[in-house]
Design brief:
single chain; 329 residues; elongated; 0% strand; 17 helices
Length: 329
């Protein structure tokens, strides 16, 4: 695995941590406190490594999880260890039920983030989500690794703590949306369609609406998510409808501007990598919708008297005009 030059010095290097954990759980090593594998974060770290783009990191992660199973099997904690062995069996059985699953298959970050958050909840029995999560996770023999786990059930929960469950699952989707693989998984589960249809619903509060915009912002940061949402799902037209609402929240407007900005940056980066004869096709396709949306945003920014908002919108508009002019020549 090559050194990517991560600027965050607080992040543990998996090239060190995973072999270190493997050595700690070697058969010849004595271990008397097996629960430390869980509450120290070792189990969560190994699960998170399964979504790495590097084959070597994933292979080390699978190896560590196999040693966790071996260490738990030898533990005397008859009741406590069953929960964590079941979590690992969900991954194992999910991989076994998949068709043409490659060796050391890469899992979506949506799945690994979900499992890591589940581990955190199961370590905290006093959590308001403990009953809901344990009831749904521990009753399954396998996990569908090709869908967003428990998305529809938690989003449309009928429990008294439904708001907490909604916010939790939306946070999982937001934090797990990182690349094209994650968006393809979300698209297979109709995540964006469901969230867009829920806009304005009384079942979702203001925080939930902001989380929906955050998820869409993460989606358009991926190449697949941006092209799919903008060209096939009418994202720009949907954003116009939000801006035209009466008494629209100022924070909603800023989120919409961020979505438009990231969408345009992603589209420009896609166009730069295309061959000369295919360049400009995507920008021409969305040019009209983008200008309508920017025009509506300019009117709204002037009404709100926000100089920063106007400046951001003008920057996007000038970039759009410049590319449109160069494409027509």
């Amino acid at each position: 695995v090559e050194d990517g030059g991560c600027p965050d010095t607080t992040i543990y290097d998996p090239r060190f941590i995973l072999p270190f954990l493997s050595q700690l759980m070697a058969p010849e090593m004595y271990m008397d406190k097996h629960m430390r594998l869980v509450d120290s974060g070792a189990l969560s770290y190994a699960i998170a490594s399964l979504s790495s783009r590097e084959w070597g990191v994933r292979a080390a992660g699978y190896h560590v999880l196999a040693r966790v199973v071996g260490a738990m099997d030898t533990a005397k904690l008859a009741q406590e260890k069953q929960v964590w062995l079941h979590i690992l069996s969900l991954i194992r059985n999910g991989l076994a039920t998949g068709s043409n699953t490659p060796r050391c298959a890469r899992l979506s970050s949506l799945v690994t983030v979900f499992l890591v958050r589940v581990v955190d909840i199961l370590l905290t029995p006093l959590s308001t989500l403990y009953k809901t999560v344990s009831r749904s996770i521990l009753a399954k023999p396998a996990m569908d690794l090709q869908a967003v786990p428990e998305f529809s059930r938690l989003l449309n929960s009928a429990d008294l703590n439904s708001t907490g469950e909604q916010r939790w699952v939306l946070e999982v989707v937001r934090d797990g949306m990182r690349d094209n693989l994650d968006y393809s998984l979300a698209n297979r589960s109709f995540v964006c369609k469901i969230l867009k249809s829920q806009w304005g619903s009384v079942a979702i509060d203001r925080v939930g609406h902001l989380q929906i915009l955050d998820i869409l912002e993460r989606c358009v940061a991926t190449n697949y998510g941006c092209t799919d949402l903008v060209t096939r799902h009418g994202l720009l037209t949907w954003l116009v409808a939000i801006i035209k609402q009466d008494r629209v929240d100022k924070l909603y407007i800023k989120k919409v501007v961020n979505i438009v900005k990231i969408s345009w940056e992603t589209i420009c980066s896609i166009e730069e990598r295309k061959q000369d004869e295919k360049k400009g096709l995507l920008t021409k396709l969305i040019q009209t919708e983008m200008k309508i949306l920017l025009g509506q945003l300019q009117v709204t920014a002037e009404r709100k008297q926000d100089a920063e908002l106007r400046a951001n919108i003008e920057n996007i508009s000038s970039s759009l005009d410049l590319i449109s002019t160069s494409a027509s020549q």
